Structures are given as C-alpha cells and as structure tokens.
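Notes for week 9. Today we move from apo structures to complexes. The key idea is that a small molecule is not decoration. When we ask for a structure prediction with calcium ion present, the ligand SMILES becomes part of the input, just like the chain. The input block below holds both the sequence and the ligand string. Read it once before you look at the output, and try to guess where the molecule might sit.
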Amino acid sequence: MNSLCLLLVTFWIIGTIDCSKPMCPDIEWVLIQQRGQFQNSEQFFEKDFKEYEAGFGSKEKEFWIGLKKLSELTSTGKWLLKVNILTWTGETYQADFNSFKVLEGPRYELQIAEYDRFSTLPEYNLLRSNGQAFSTYDNDQDTDKTRSCSKETGDAGWWYGRYGSCTYINLNGHNRNTTDDITDLKAMYVYTPDGYKYAQETVMQMLQIRK
Ligand SMILES: [Ca+2]
C-alpha cells in the first residue's frame, strides 16, 4: 500500500472520511466473520473444529473464513483487525487493532495488539484472548481444565481467555433475537461501556497494512 492510501485508510478508520475503493484501488479488506439476520438457524455457528478450520457460510450472509486460511494469510506482513457490532438495542460499537495474527494449527493461537484509541468497544473484549488457542466443543484448547468454554457459550468456536468467565465477547454464539437483559451466555453478546448486550450483527475484517 502506498503512503497516500495508508493515510486515507487511517482517516477512514477514525471515521473522518469515506475511503472507498475508487480512492484506494489497492485496499482489500478480507472478511473474517459475519453474523446477521439471514434466516439461518440460531445455532448456525455451532460447528466442530474441522469446520472452523475449513470455514463455512457465505460472504453475503453469515460467514467464517476458516482458521487455516486466516493463519496462512496473516503469516506474512502486518495486518489490522476491525470489528463492528450492532446490538439488538440499536447501539453500534467498533474496535480496531493495528496488529493481528493467527499462528498455525493445531493451536491457531491469536496474537493481537496495538488497540486503536478511537475504538468504542472496550479493548479487553479481544485483548483477553491474546496468546490463547482456538477451542470448539470437540477440541477444548482453553486453559481451564475444569470446564469447556465452548460448551458454555453455545458450542461456539473462539479464543477463550484464561480467567473467570471464558470470554467477554461471544460473536460466534447463538443468534438470538432479544432485547432482554443478558441471561443467556450461549447467545451472541458483547461487553460494552454500558454492560453486556446481545449482538444483532457483527463483522470482523482485516487489512494488510504492510507486506
Ligand atoms: Ca477447558
């Protein structure tokens, strides 16, 4: 990416300009994960380790890129991670990390750093997973030997943290249509400055900012 485009991307990230493809033809965001209301079953993200490894869904609807591809792509260069969330009560949150990498299998460890200070989603939602392996219901790689974080969060796949509750954020949980107070930790949820909220739409995408 040339320096002009890097500058434009920076302004786009902090929300001051609309950096669309015609302005920056070499910008290519890679979709990692997407949830939303597309008539899939609530449990569409209940998948085993092989499925999380290979990827599933479609980019027009709900989608998971696959750990193998994620690891291969981020093995070279420097990548930025962008997470956007819409809650069922209508709030939007976003978090950017200027350093993002997934190591090779079978651990597929998450390495994440350089939280962008303009983000509105508290950093520990994702930073808590830094250095953690990826777990599913059939492949428990979390560090708590007494429980399965995946089973507690709707048979989801994620980089669960090591202390207390398994995760502050459950983007791969059950897709529940509800504005109720949080009681169901198997549902898609996120920890916000106003407490836990159920998520209605989520998008995780990444951009290579250095070759
Ligand atoms: Ca465990």
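Residues 10 and 188 are 29 Å apart (CA to CA).
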